[in-house]
């Protein structure tokens, strides 16, 4: 199925929510720099604004502003695990809006190896919020039909595609401590 990327870009930059396949589950996303879109996503999921959100990228260049304040030594674990299904908590980048970080002093980022996520971020020329497509505390969606049934008109853009081969959502590590959190 062909996507109309012009319509998807317009929806994204107008604050609408997107659903798309990721490595293991369907994700819900929006423009991370649009506070209204982020608040809408949190409301649709019934997710606390105090919880931080993951940002997905498809290229290293998209992550440069988020990683610029890190030393080369701090970036080593990122180079070793990306692209792939690993999310890193990065100490507070100066340009990151608080609504993405929630009550945290770090931001969660992932350089995805999933071709659909890579294409999405390339077409949007942006990082994308990447949170599991579910209501808080429930199982995440595994197909587009579940997205439509669970979220209806609240998620107007459903980008078709296949899930990656992972059985679980990305692992999460804290860059400061190296500790695995998920």
Automatic annotation (TrEMBL):
Start and end of every YrdC-like domain?
Answer: 2-182
- Documented EC number(s): 2.7.7.87
Membrane-crossing residues?
none
Q: Which reaction does it catalyse?
A: L-threonine + hydrogencarbonate + ATP = L-threonylcarbamoyladenylate + diphosphate + H2O
By its UniProt entry, which InterPro entries does this protein fall under?
A: DHBP_synth_RibB-like_a/b_dom, Sua5-like_dom, TC-AMP_synthase, TC-AMP_synthase_SUA5
> At the top level of its lineage, which domain of life is listed?
Bacteria
UniProt xrefs under Pfam families = Sua5_yciO_yrdC (PF01300)
Q: Which UniProt keywords apply?
A: ATP-binding, Cytoplasm, Nucleotide-binding, Nucleotidyltransferase, Transferase, tRNA processing
Q: Where in the cell is it found?
A: Cytoplasm
Which molecular function GO terms apply here?
A: L-threonylcarbamoyladenylate synthase
Function, in words: Required for the formation of a threonylcarbamoyl group on adenosine at position 37 (t(6)A37) in tRNAs that read codons beginning with adenine. Catalyzes the conversion of L-threonine, HCO(3)(-)/CO(2) and ATP to give threonylcarbamoyl-AMP (TC-AMP) as the acyladenylate intermediate, with the release of diphosphate.
Query: Which PANTHER family does the record match to this protein?
Result: SUA5 (PTHR17490), THREONYLCARBAMOYL-AMP SYNTHASE (PTHR17490:SF18)
Regarding protein family, the annotation reads: Belongs to the SUA5 family. TsaC subfamily.
Q: What is this protein called?
A: Threonylcarbamoyl-AMP synthase
